């Protein structure tokens, strides 16, 4: 199984690159932002509570997103692997993700971070806000708050994966296909260096 965390601030290009990666590597895309927006669209209680925080650019509680990821893993038992986009955003979420992966006899292969400076992020998100219909993309103050939340609460998650020697960073500014090529290069290197865990190997032999 190939499980990748795509990391970076809002507007770094995680969603765009995820779409290309799921096609190339046959993965399931799990974006907690998309899962939360689906809850909002369905008008669930969870969605209503989350919306208030999301519209302000603040994080929703760890337990909410961890629960959603746990359910998504259960509902995709045939997946060849997952791309996590926008999750984990706190160290507590990263720890829970490791536990969830272990309970499915798998693990995170690597984290790939897309680095983009704040002024470029603001420009990109305001542009996206013209068509995304997202209140958090349409107001510069909210966008800058999301970047601040990333810097203060989320950036430290990189250290969690660096300690496991799974962290890689790339420049997120440049042609989409060039960045995609660099991400694929890193994934292919990782796969060559670290094949499946013994548990996964046994599963494949049995299958
Ligand atoms: P995104 O689509 O990834 O930019 O996420 C939009 C918003 O959803 C964020 O600003 C948060 O309010 C919320 N959100 C998404 N993923 C998470 C997460 N892993 N932890 C907490 N809040 C999240």
Written account of the structure:
The protein is α/β, with parallel strands linked by helices and 207 residues long. It has a single domain (2-200), classed as P-loop containing nucleotide triphosphate hydrolases (Rossmann fold, 3-Layer(aba) Sandwich), CATH 3.40.50.300. Helices cover 60% and strands 13% of the residues. The protein has helices at residues 14-25, 32-42, 45-56, 62-74, 91-103, 118-132, 140-154, 157-163, 176-193, 198-206, and strands spanning 2-7, 28-31, 81-85, 110-115, 167-171. A five-stranded parallel β-sheet has the order 2-3-1-4-5. α2 crosses α3. It starts with a strand and ends with a helix. The model has no long low-confidence stretch (mean pLDDT 94). Adenosine monophosphate binds at residues 10, 32-33, 36, 53-54, 57-60, 65, 86-87, 89, 93, 136, 146. ATP binds at residues 11-16, 128, 174. Pathway: Purine metabolism; AMP biosynthesis via salvage pathway; AMP from ADP: step 1/1.
